[in-house]
Amino acid sequence: MSEQSPRFRQVLDQFAGYKPGKAPVAAASRTFKLSSNESPYGPLPSVQAVLADAAAQIHLYPDNTAAALTTAIADRFGVPAGHVALGCGSVGIAQQLLEAVGEPGAEVMYAWRSFEAYPYLTQLANAEAVEVPLTDHAHDLAAMAAAITDRTRLIFVCNPNNPTGTVVRQAELEAFLDAVPGDCLVVLDEAYVQYIRDPQVPDGIALYRDRQNVAVLRTFSKAYGLAGLRAGFLIGHEPVAEAVRKTMLPFTVNSLAQVAAVASLAAEDELMERVDLVVKERDRVRSELLAQGWTVPPTEANFVWLPLGDRSAEFAGACDQAGLSIRPYPPDGVRVTIAGPEANDAFLSTARSYPHRQ
Ligand SMILES: *Cc1c(COP(=O)(O)O)cnc(C)c1O
Question: Which ligand 1 atom is nearest residue 232's CA?
Fold first, then answer.
């Protein structure tokens, strides 16, 4: 018997893989999962009904072109169907884009801290990560523009930024886009766009239209409440959408995800009422935390960021004890998802009794 084990790429030794948000510890009497920015609401009856029908057809492969969903997205956002590409969540599309640009020497830029999938997928794609530190918990677009080289192939701008909730506004984003060379793709990751209430934050779909090198990522996982089904989409010009289609694993968007996403677009008014409730709760939670003496950057997403530094893990432990699973990102801070009033109250009361405020 050989003593050897199979040999893998060295890059795999450097990280542990994507860590999803934890489920709450079952010991507490009530538990709430505030660690993955999911919707606190279950699926709409109209969505459940199409899923039940589609379940009878799962012996068949899904439509690989997702024609009905592609048309529904194109109609909803007023873009040509050829500008729409789909993936297994928008994280799947991020991977497809990185596959499309990744090669030795290629640089992929993003702010840090930002979405934790960026570094991991960048390394997997054989590209070099260029991380530009946040300033005041927000993208420093001037520093990012200054860090562009002739090897920069793709730049993520996460707006609002996960995990800090901060936004970039119209004027600064347009100035940045004007500074990016045309052969470098800018990906506006708008996973939380429905939660934005700041009127100065641009809609990426308006910005991409006359910019060949700008594309927008959207997801059905957050405001649309379909995180368990895995569907996301890109809107970008033909060559970008085409690259994403070429790098897609065949049949990547399953048949249940396709029908549920179509039904969710049809039920958007109902879903946006839920988003409004979360936004109200977000503003209530942030005000209350500020009143308690915490530092909380302004947030336009369905979560708040507490920059607790070295105490991040300890605070997350205290929340765990109270049956609340939140997301620690040591050594920077913790991210707490806004859920329903009962969960938010439970979090606020845990925060109130935590001894070392910042
Ligand atoms: C949640 C999230 C996504 C997408 O999630 P999917 O479930 O893969 O669609 C993308 N970007 C950011 C910044 C997110 O927080």
Answer: 9
